[in-house]
């Protein structure tokens, strides 16, 4: 089973760039990497997804090295509203199915 | 995308009783899931709600404790039966649009139901 490992928590200040790294050493060939964000008292919401190299959208960037054993979610110029828990998900093996297992997540606290 | 609502948003229940949580989606979806999130913890998948057939449960979760219905493509219920304080959690419904949840598919989550069992 592909398993993800993330830092439990991170602290930052408004305006800084935040990088959260996720390790997924057993990622399968056809697995994509998906990141979700969860605010208190809400369900998780999709942020970004990628397979290799770099993906960027209006919210974040995702960097994936060539060996794909890790990925880094980059949040540019964070604000207080980015305080949340961030989860990295990968599939569960070569079946390509079921990106449904949430790891422990990273609790990001942004301070003024 | 999808807009998902859950009822109730929260409830306080007595030990030994049951609570049914409803999940309503604003569009037809192929896949619906139920998760549990204990305070300060990550999400744990309970089951996949299959339309027209029995739900598929994850290891550690059984139908007698968490019966699930899915009568159509926009609605599902999760019942937490014979509750104990250990069942106090947030229960979340999520949906996906693919036929088979692949590694590229994204989920859309409801706001959750906060359950407290006394």
Structure characterization notes:
The complex is a heterodimer of chains A (112) and B (118). Chain A has no helices and 9 strands. Helices cover 0% and strands 45% of the residues of chain A. In chain A, a hairpin with a 4-residue loop joins strand 5 (53-56) and strand 6 (61-64). Chain A has a single domain (9-111), classed as Immunoglobulins (Immunoglobulin-like, Sandwich). By secondary structure, chain A is mainly beta. Chain A is globular, with a radius of gyration of 13 Å. Chain A has strands spanning 9-13, 18-23, 33-38, 45-50, 53-56, 61-64, 70-75, 84-90, 106-111. Chain B has 118 residues and is mainly β. Chain B has a domain at 25-99: Immunoglobulin-like (Sandwich). Chain B is 0% helix and 48% strand. Chain B has no helices and 11 strands. In chain B, the strands form 2 sheets. In chain B, strands 2, 4, 5, 6, 9, 10 and 11 form a 7-stranded mixed β-sheet that branches. In chain B, strands 1-3-8-7 form a 4-stranded antiparallel β-sheet, with no helix packed on it. In chain B, a hairpin with a 2-residue loop joins strand 7 and strand 8 (75-80). The model of chain B has no long low-confidence stretch (mean pLDDT 93).
Main β-sheet of chain A: number of strands, strand sense, barrel status? 5 strands, mixed
How would you classify the helix and strand content of chain A by structural class? Answer: mainly beta
Our count of domains of chain A comes out at 1
The CATH class of chain A turns out to be Mainly Beta
Helical residues, percent of chain A? under 10%
From the N-terminal CA to the C-terminal CA of chain A, the straight-line distance is 40 Å
Rg for CA atoms of chain B: 13 Å
Which strand order does the major sheet of chain A show? 1-9-8-3-4
For the report, how would you describe the main beta sheet of chain B? 7 strands, mixed
Assembly state here?
Answer: heterodimer
CATH-derived topology of chain A: Immunoglobulin-like
Named at the architecture level, the CATH assignment of chain A is Sandwich
């Amino acid at each position: 089973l592909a398993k993800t490992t993330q830092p439990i928590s991170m602290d930052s200040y408004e305006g800084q760039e935040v990088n959260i790294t996720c390790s997924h050493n057993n990622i399968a060939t056809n697995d994509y990497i998906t990141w979700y964000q969860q605010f208190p008292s809400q369900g998780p919401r999709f942020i970004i997804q990628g397979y290799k190299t770099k993906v960027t959208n209006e919210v974040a960037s995702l960097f994936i090295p060539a060996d794909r054993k890790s990925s880094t979610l980059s949040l540019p110029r964070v604000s207080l509203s980015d305080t949340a828990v961030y989860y990295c998900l990968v599939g569960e093996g070569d079946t390509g199915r079921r990106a449904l297992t949430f790891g422990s997540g990273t609790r990001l606290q942004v301070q003024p | 995308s999808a807009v998902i609502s859950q009822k109730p948003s929260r409830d306080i229940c007595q030990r030994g009783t049951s609570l049914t949580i409803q999940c309503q989606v604003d569009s037809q979806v192929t896949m619906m899931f139920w998760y549990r999130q204990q305070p300060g913890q990550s999400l744990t998948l309970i089951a996949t709600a299959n339309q027209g057939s029995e739900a598929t449960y994850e290891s550690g979760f059984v139908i007698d404790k968490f019966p699930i219905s899915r009568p159509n493509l926009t609605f599902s219920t999760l019942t937490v039966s014979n509750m104990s304080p250990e069942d106090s959690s947030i229960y979340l419904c999520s949906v996906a649009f693919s036929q088979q949840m692949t590694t590229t598919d994204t989920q859309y989550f409801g706001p959750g139901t906060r359950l407290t069992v006394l």
